[in-house]
Amino acid sequence: MSTNKFEDLDYGSRSYGISVEELSLTFNLSMFSDYAKAYYGEIQRRNIRKLESSELSVEELETYFKSLFIIRIKSLGISGFKEWRQARQLYIPAWIQLIISKYGVLNKPEFGIRIVPTIDGTVNVNDLLVTSNKLSSFVDDGMFMVKDGFPRETEGDVDVMMMAVFENQVRGIIRPDNPSPLAQLVTAFTNAKIEQDTTLKALYRISYDDVDFIKSMLLNDRRLVQ
To answer: Dihedral of CA 211/212/213/215: which sign?
Structure first.
């Protein structure tokens, strides 16, 4: 029996768009500790005497780098970051500046989602200014840094914001184009995760490298600490 006679069945139903769901992107900054050790080692290699006289430590660098990231994420909130003027005076290593520039709010209504970075933690800007002053002295030794390097816009990088870590592997939301290879490196470095990963894991259907492999490659690339 032909079913063509049912093709024109229509009871007046209409389609409506569903509301956008907000996803919270959280972070585990453990790799910042490894980066601080590598960065310290590079400074030590370039000018050990100046490093010793500055009394700069690995722990101080780790706190500094993590704090720079926290400032960026906090600045995306409704009230922003209250000590923004002082924060603009901080010197930021090139790799960390790249990392913080990639994160922001991402609206993807075609996927029904809005991705918002969130992070806990506080920073002491006065302490950061002290560390920044120490770091800036190594610019003369070839350590590349930028001042006033925090992004002004709140939008995040599409490639990075559409990736997250699941079970120690970087995964991305399926899309018609190919994201930059750099995006998975940034995602692994910050260990970015979606809080609602249990229910929304199906969105992230593209698998990339595992975090441990990316970590080993990144921390052995001297370009990151120069």
So the answer is: positive
pLDDT of residue 8: 80
> If you ran DSSP here, which 8-state letter would residue 140 be given?
G
Per-residue pLDDT reduced to its tens digit, 23-35: 999 999 999 999 9
Beta strands in 10-63 (DSSP E): 21-26
128-144 per-position pLDDT tens digit: 999 999 999 999 999 99
The b-or-e profile of 164-174 (16+ CB within 10 A means b, else e) is: bbeeebbbbbe
| Residues in the chain where the model's pLDDT stays below 50 | none
Could you give the count of Cα atoms lying within 13 Å of 63 in the half-sphere of its Cβ?
A: 16
Question: Where in the chain are the domains?
Answer: 20-225
Tell me what pLDDT residue 3 has.
Answer: 62
With beta carbons less than 8 A apart as the criterion, state whether 72 and 103 touch: yes
Q: Which amino acid is at 54?
A: S
Question: What are the residues facing 170 on neighbouring strands?
Answer: 165
The amino acid sitting at 108 is: K
Which helix or strand (DSSP H or E) is residue 199 part of?
helix 197-200
Query: What tokens does 61 get?
Result: 């660098």
**Given the structure tokens 């100046």, which residue do they identify?**
50
Which phi and psi (to 5°) does residue 44 adopt? Answer: -60, -40
Contact between 76 and 177 (Cβ < 8 Å): no
Residue with tokens 């209409």: 14
List, edge to edge, every strand of the sheet that includes 206-210. 163-166, 169-172, 206-210
